[in-house]
Every structure is written in structure tokens, then in C-alpha cells.
Amino acid sequence: MQPRENPLCEDLIIVWKLFKVSPTGIVLPLCAVDVRHRAYENHMTDKRRYKRFTVDVLGINGKMMFASEVEIHDISLGGISLKVDRRLNMHNEYTLKIGNDRKTLSIKGVVVWSKISGTKKGSRDEVIPLYTAGMKFVNMSVDKIEELTAFLDGQANFSHEKVHQASGLRCSMRFLVDPPLKKAVLNLPETYIVKKLSLGGMLIESEKPLEIEEKIPMEMVLPGDVRLEFLGRIASSLMIHDEGSPRYDIGIEFIEMRDDNKKKLEELIRSLDTARGISG
Fold first, then answer.
1. Which of 248, 252, 253 has its CA nearest to residue 124?
2. In this structure, what is the dihedral angle of CA atoms 230, 233, 236, 242, given to the nearest 10 degrees?
3. What is the CATH number of the domain that holds 171?
4. Percentage of the residues of the chain whose pLDDT score is greater than 90
């Protein structure tokens, strides 16, 4: 493996040369070659509670799960069109929660079309694109169809006759939506790469800016396909100023993690510290 520098984070450059597989399945580095520290890195480390390690060359990645409120345009028993402030990937499956004060339904759908329909200003005055997308409902059992039919039947803006026509041969018939069923919640997973890692948190790269203090369910995949699940708190969110599409450095604090996952993380951190010591 050839040395590879990260142009966005040059304080520590590590190329992992030797590996072993731990009893828990994590691929651990045994030795690092070509390690260079800058003086300010050592100074910053002294002020931190945990040592941080640059790990982008290890290919550690993960997934965040956002619950985003979306605006419904129209709906049928076969699918839905909606407006959302995040891009939905074509042919990907998402979970949508539709509800009112009395009942909430959870329905899975696959994106069949998507287009940019406008923009809005973010909290930092950045321009955020808005999308309109169409989703086809999937895994709709007879019970789920009857549940959705009854739910739509109970909405004031749908007539009883129209809903039951749709539940028969005219399943593709769509209805424009007015309040109180105007809003829904869409579960949106977003992937990220880990650039720096410690026992207390990590620095990741994301396509979206995140709100400081927001708490997000997250998953991280360590070398060896070992998966850790935890709740992360957004500690910082800074735009990366370079050419290309906007990207952001996001600082994450681990605030809830199961004990078995903590032990796996500690195992990786110990190996990183040992490899750094051998190379230093």
C-alpha cells in the first residue's frame, strides 16, 4: 500500500502495513509506517481527554438515520408524492410515517422519480435544494392495504366513496392532500466516512451540514465489517472549502453506546495507539 496523504487533515499521516484479526472480528493494525506529527498536534492532544487518531486510510464508514419532516402532495394506495429537503436516491427504499392525532402508519416505499423543485436558506444562510419525489409503496400486505384504506377513509378531505373505489380496481387513483395529513416523517439514512477517531467521539465527513447539539442514531463499520451502534451528539459542523460539491467536517461525541460495542472500540483504539508507538 502506498502512502496517501489527506489534503484536508495533514497533522498525522499513517499508512498501515501489518494487520491481525481480533477474536471479536476487528481487523487491527499491528504497525504503522511513514508517520509524521506536527508540533501543534501534540499540543492539542495534551488538551484532549482522549487521544485522536487519523483513520481515513482504514476505510471506516457509517450511517446516520435522520427523521425528516416532509410535505405530502398527493397519495394513493399504490404510492405517494412528496417534497423533501434531502435528495432521495433512485430505487432506494425508505420508511415513511404518516399520521394524525389519532393514528400513525409506517409504510415502506421505493423512489421511482425525483427532481429539484426549489431552494431554501439554511441556518447558516447556505442554499439548500428542495426535491419533489415519487415513491411506490412496497411490501403492502392485504392487512396493510386495508389499514391504509381505513386511515385515508377517516380523513376529512377524502370522501368514503373515493377511498373505496381506490381500494378496488382503481388502486392508482391519487388524492391531493390538505391538513391535517399534510405532513409526514421520512426516515433518511445518510452515509459518512470517519476521518479521526477516539474513545470519546470522531470527526466525519458528510454531504450535509448538521445542527449543533442535535442527537442522531448512528452506525459505524470498523475494519472486518464489525458494526457499532450508538447515539451521537453533533459537537461541530464546518464546511470544507475546496472545489467540488459542498461537504462538511462534523464533530461527533459518543453519548450512548452499549458496553459490548465500547469494548470493540477500545480494542481498535489500543491497537492504533500501539502501532503509533512502534512507529514513533
1. 248
2. 40
3. 2.40.10
4. 31
160 belongs to a structural domain: yes
* Long-range contacts, 104-111 (Cβ 8 Å, 24+): 105/147, 105/148, 105/151, 107/137, 107/140, 107/144, 107/148, 108/137, 108/138, 108/139, 109/79, 109/80, 109/135, 109/136, 109/137, 109/138, 110/135, 110/136, 110/138, 111/135
246-264 confidence digits (pLDDT tens): 789 999 999 999 999 999 9
In a domain, 270, yes or no: no
Q: What is the pTM of this model?
A: 0.62
Please give the angle made by the CA atoms of 12, 231 and 47, to the nearest 5 degrees. 40
pLDDT at 275: 76
Res 25: pLDDT: 63
Containing domain of residue 148, as a range?
A: 67-187
Split into its structural domains, the chain has a count of 1
Cis status of the peptide bond prior to 180, with omega within 30 of 0: yes
Looking at per-residue pLDDT, the higher value among 127 and 8 belongs to: 127
Position 149 in a domain: yes
- Which stretches of the chain are assigned E, i.e. beta strand? 12-21, 27-37, 53-54, 61-75, 79-84, 93-99, 104-121, 127-138, 175-176, 183-197, 201-206, 215-222, 226-239, 248-257
Residue 249 lies in a domain: no
